[in-house]
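Hi all, posting the design record for the shared folder.

TITLE: backbone redesign
STEP: 1 of 1
STRUCTURE INPUT:
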């Protein structure tokens, strides 16, 4: 082996030993400070609380109100005031079809947001009653006689002790909740058509059972 090759091998070995020693020291020593920081100005930028005085506007806070007449993107402002209940009930129409999917959606929102006051059955026996006041039942003649637009208006702007829920419930979910409330009303006070339909279903089942017996076919769950 030439002297030059031996010298190169010795240099490589020394470099390898130095690297291993450096790694060993680095693994055994717990650093308290970051050695290199990339763009530290982003990590240590000045912070000003919203309530602090604005240096560009002496006497005013840093938090600024939106420009007058502007609304957030994707937001449609509610154009009725709390006093416009009669106008709202005439102009607002429920755009959702009363389907099983709509009722399931309304039930989900009702049991998430409305149940704490109005109760699972809509009779006012909510989870926070008492100590909070009991709200009126949703099965009264007054509420049953309200158009969907009137209920939508009350959910949106509130009424008496009930606060506005426009920020908690989306407009389409408010309509779905109204459909579910109508289903609760029908379950507590069925319409004559509901009773006739139920009676017709029972008569149909009885007729089918009698016909099956005459034909010698066992009833469901029975023995031949």
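Okay, here is what came back for every position:
SEQUENCE:
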């Amino acid at each position: 082996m030439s002297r030059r090759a031996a010298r190169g091998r010795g240099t490589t070995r020394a470099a390898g030993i130095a690297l291993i020693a450096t790694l060993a020291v680095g693994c055994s020593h717990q650093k308290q400070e970051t050695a290199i920081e990339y763009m530290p100005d982003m990590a240590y930028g000045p912070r000003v609380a919203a309530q602090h005085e604005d240096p560009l506007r002496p006497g005013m806070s840093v938090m600024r109100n939106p420009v007058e007449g502007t609304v957030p993107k994707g937001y449609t402002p509610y154009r009725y005031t709390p006093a416009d209940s009669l106008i709202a009930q005439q102009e607002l129409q429920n755009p959702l079809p009363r389907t099983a999917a709509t009722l399931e959606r309304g039930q989900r929102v009702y049991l998430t947001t409305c149940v704490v006051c109005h109760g699972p059955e809509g009779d006012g026996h909510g989870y926070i009653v008492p100590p909070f006041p009991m709200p009126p039942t949703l099965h009264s003649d007054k509420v049953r006689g309200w158009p969907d637009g009137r209920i939508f208006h009350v959910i949106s702007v509130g009424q008496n002790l009930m606060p506005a829920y426009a920020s908690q419930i989306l407009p389409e979910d408010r309509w779905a909740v109204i459909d579910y409330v109508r289903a609760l009303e029908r379950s507590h006070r069925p319409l004559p058509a509901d009773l006739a339909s139920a009676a017709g279903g029972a008569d149909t089942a009885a007729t089918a059972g009698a016909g099956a017996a005459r034909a010698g076919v066992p009833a469901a769950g029975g023995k031949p």
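COMMENT: DSSP finds eight helices and two strands in the chain.
Let me know if anyone wants the other runs.
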